[in-house]
Amino acid sequence: MVNLEWYRTFKAIYKTGTLTKAADALFISQPGVSLHLSSLESYVGYKLFDRTGRKMIPTERGKILYNAIAEGLKILEDAEKNFQRSTEKHTPTISIGMCFETFQITLEQYISTLPFNVIIRFGEYPEMLENLNKGILDLVISPQKVDSVNISYEAFSSETIVLVGGSEVDDSELQQLVKQKKYKAVENYLKSQKWYGTTGDMEHLFRFWQLNFDNFPDFRPNYIVPNIHSIVRCLNGANGLAVIPDFLCKKEVESGTVKLLWEGHKKLKNTLYFANRKNTAYEKELDLIKDLFKKVML
């Protein structure tokens, strides 16, 4: 079944004459406009525009399609406007991408206070940033950046990836080896311990190990749990090691139920960014969300 947003995008291109102007009119990215158009052309089975330089010239079939849908789209748009007026105030919906643990420690406690609708999505950072570029997401909290003229990045915090253990861990040998800078011995000591990891995500451990020991870990964690908060709960007052971001175990380290064992002789730091499209209709809503993150993490 055809997506009505494809028709809305087709109409915007038809009226403005360029992909860029259509993107500005719809408050989505240019790649998102191109995706909608190519999807519609695949659906109807023929070309709708000839591309001459930056101008989009409708083909004969494009003109026929526009004449066929213009009146129907106008009726739908008028109905949408009337519906918004009848409900007094249009409530926007903001889609945000981030990792599960970041949501739990930051935005989860404030969700009920937000004066607009929110959809939270979890996933891999490259995929979430691609969806931001396409207009599927409005904001992404990410330690990664991708090159895009449509996306604006604002650094707002940082995280250090650290080695932690439960309060029952005897780390005296480790601390002695670290003090002596015997890092090969440190590596061998760590490999002999019990380890926790998360399902499908070993990036923190791999990067920490490569930075400090110049190779990748040749072992798998003994216990694989759903997420980093599960690791912290398992370590709480117990034994075992893990490599995780420091802000996700800050309270437990301060309370003494989890130990901060080592930051590495080379610190692994990530800068956290707010990523959003430069042309957005939700600037006020995004600013409110950003302020909440800064309140929790700064």
UniProtKB/TrEMBL annotation:
Keywords tagged on the record: DNA-binding, Transcription, Transcription regulation
Pfam families found in the cross-reference section: HTH_1, LysR_substrate
Question: So what family is this one in?
Answer: Belongs to the LysR transcriptional regulatory family.
Q: What is this protein called?
A: LysR family transcriptional regulator
Q: What is the lineage of its organism?
A: Bacteria, Pseudomonadati, Bacteroidota, Flavobacteriia, Flavobacteriales
Q: Where is the HTH lysR-type domain?
A: 2-59
Q: Which InterPro entries match?
A: LysR_HTH_N, LysR_subst-bd, WH-like_DNA-bd_sf, WH_DNA-bd_sf
